[in-house]
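Hey all, sorry for the wall of text incoming. These are the three entities for the joint prediction.
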Amino acid sequence: MQWETVIGLEVHVQLATKSKIFSGSSTAFGAEANTQASAVDLALPGTLPVPNENAFRYAIMFGLAIDADINKRSFFERKNYFYPDLPKGYQTTQLEQPIVGPGKVDIELADGSTKTVRIHHAHLEEDAGKSLHEDYHGMSGIDLNRAGTPLIEIVSEPDMRTAEEAVAFAKKLHAIVTSLGICDGEMAQGSMRFDVNISIRPEGEEKLGTRTETKNLNSFRFMERAIKLEVERQIDVLEDGGSITQETRLYDGDKDVSRAMRSKEEANDYRYFPCPDLLPVEFDEHYIQSLRDAMPELPDARKARFVADFGLSEYDAGILSTDADVAHYFEAVAGASGDAKLSANWIMGEVSGRLNSEDLSMKQCPVASEALATLIQRIKDNTVSSAGAKKVFEVLWSQSSQDVDTIIDQQGLKQVSDTGALEAMVDEVLAGMPDQIAQYQAADEKKRKKLMGGFMGPLMKASKGQGNPKLFNEILQRKLNN
Amino acid sequence: MFEFTIKELAQGLADKSFSSQEITQAYLDRIEALNPRYNAYITVNAEQAIEAAKQADNRIAKGDASMWTGIPFAHKDIFCTQGLLTTCGSKMLHNFVPPYDATVVANFKREGAVCLGKTNLDEFAMGSSNEHSFYGRVINPWSKDEELVPGGSSGGSAAAIAARLAPAATGTDTGGSIRQPAAFCNLTGLKPTYGRVSRYGMIAYASSLDQGGPMTRNAEDAALMLQVMAGHDPKDSTSMRQDVPDYSADLNKSLEGLTLGLPKEYFNDQLSQEMANTLTAAVKVFEQLGAKVKEVSLPNADLSIPAYYVIAPAEASANLSRFDGVRYGYRCEEPADLMDLYERSRSEGFGTEVKRRILIGTYALSAGYYDAYYRKAQQVRRLVKNDFVAAFEEVDAILAPTTPSPAFGFGAKGDDPVQMYLEDIFTISANLAGIPGMSIPAGKVNGLPVGLQLLGNYFDEARLLNLAHQFQTATDWHLASPDNQ
Amino acid sequence: MSIGPEDIKKIAHLARLQVSAEEAEKLGGDIANILNLVDQLQAANTEGVEPMANPLDAVQVLRSDTVTEQNQREAYQAIAPATEDGLYLVPKVIE
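and here's what came out:
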């Protein structure tokens, strides 16, 4: 039988506020356990929440970016359940009137076509803490630094049909929230986490199959693998005559396996009700318009601009505009170097290659945009050859010095472009190669091109690799063709 | 000295008739002698109180004092006090020493007032009799042959003032918990408008109903105390940015030209003839003071109790989830697993009434019942509010009984919680509507004090205080004490 | 409204409370009585009435996004039942 996969995503995006959603604790990542957990975050008795205006500002910006209805009046509910990483015994979240209503996100598919994924809504809520499962005398440790970090949970309609579409959608959301500057996009730190709802149905069937939810995926690669694995599992179950159980699953990226979660087997009854410690939040059109007017550039618009202003191909512009950090880096390099095309090639080539192989994000790129721009200028003004430039790049990557000219000097990579000096070298080399000259001059045009390489090798050697190959070539042509 | 009001104590401190250390020590001695009899205090703050009194005396000597500097008083043990045990009447918090002050507590500290200790209450403020405290029941100082309840949940504060173990105390009121014990103990108690007094650091029972307020011997003192408690607090989202008037300014204003309302629905079979007579007598006093009295209608009054017993337990069921044995408070011995930690810590840490209300609330919010109970109750709540809004278009304040009867004996309400819940029939609607309510001594029934309730429009506390003070200039019910009847 | 011991057990579990069979019996009776009281609500005509969550129908004032809290872990963990390495300890969490 042919099966169709149906995928919907719930995406948790940590908002890049300085303080938490309901308290004045810092949200900075990586602090020592529980040093950023205040009385409010710890749910000490009598403490009360006061919401952070930037959490709302960022949520509304996201809503505007996906062309969504913004609810001018929204409120918070309590979602009740007990878990050690949830200090109050309820999560403060939004159910009935979330801040962001229905919207849409366009994704580009491999064949170049565009697909629209509908967004059901996006709501504000607080993140939970973390349970650390290292063994403390048979106990787990609880760190509540993350508790109360503002999140928007973006809930899509089940509009995706393949793992690739789901990944494209996830990447697009990443591009949008980082472009807006409302999330740092650091997936490895959990800044964006994906819950994937997956079901399958026979091709042509309207009715949705029973779905499972695979929780807490925090890389695109794991997400793609987890979806493929789950689809295969569901097909196996159904084709063996079994049925799918609605359940929550966990995917282990290191082992590439998934399993049903044990702790949430019982049917949940979250007993939502409006949080009486908080009042409804209202925004007027004037405020929303002021955010609309100040919206940063979104990925789609940026791509169009890269094509128009920098003369990039659609493909290159697409790659360089998706990630806000990459886009900003590109613009900085292209602007300072004055050569957009060469900048694009370097960023898509050397820079992303190295970032990928070392599993780093653009923010962590050790090569400053100014340094790369200078390097590109040195290529253009013939100070350094392409091969030499790659050596400079290696140094920029691995050492703290970002002074391109000093590196070129120190590494002896400066090209000799003094035609007098080069001509002398050519004369000297040619003087020792009479046979080759005779052979060259007897050859036809096509063969001559091939034989040219035989002179370039000794010339580069004679110049200790510093001779400008383009100029060498010109001088050779002139001397040999006479 | 123990008959001095706050105002008189402030005067004595100002003209150096006595020092704060002297009156503080006197109160501490009296507490030591008499608290075992009444059990009004859970924690006596002797050392810190003396230290605070010393500092207050220094401030007074330096001329750096406010009216409250050096005045001893007590806090209901529901307000978090930094470094001082705060139990909320529960085993759950038997070891909880807060690392922070409630805003109300901080306000009094700033003024230099001296906290004598923390007063007993029904566990988590759930009760109308003070029978539900882990730290034992509080005895009403007005008890004669039979031991009587002081009312609840602020029964410890009420008993402390009535027994002259404190000149004043803070209370909290979710369904009548300031006004009912004030009535039972012959005190003046004021539940302010919801949002008038910060709830930060006040351990929550039902967040949308809870409100802290003063419990004192008379209206003048209530005005002085509310002055310190009231005001916007950026740490409490539900606290209102409304200017705080001078609550003492209008105490002596004439009542000429005011119209007071008597809700016809309150004269029902819940109210005994003797209680009704007290009310009628009070009406005469107000008329003599120049006010007009007319009948008003609060048609949804009888729905207040059912609405309250959905909303309050529902909110409580979530508010009390944080007591899980993980970060503070009671934790069961050797939990077998996580579920065991939760279930045993909570079952062993909470008393019966608290568990009962958590279960009611959990049931009312659970799948399939939300609309029928919680949503419906919130709609009825608006009807109750609308009744008051309509009434206040016709009258300046409303007169009502505070309780259906005077203080009753322990166990008098039997085993059925509903009988106890009905005790709050006249007070609960003010919490649902969020309006201010006040109880003042208004007579005796069967030789026991009973209260008159004054209900006002939103943020109209000054008017209630004016009415109460005028009533107290014309009557002397409020001057009676258990020793001087 | 009738509510049996099984219902009580279910609610008690949601609320993480342990009730013995005996308690369930007694609580079931109490709660049935309370629900009878509460069921008076059903008589009220609330058609078109907006539920009231806050007595003043007030609107939330938002806080500016600034860090105002300092690390007070030591004070907060001094009152905790079990901690180690700055973590709160609980019986093993199984996901």
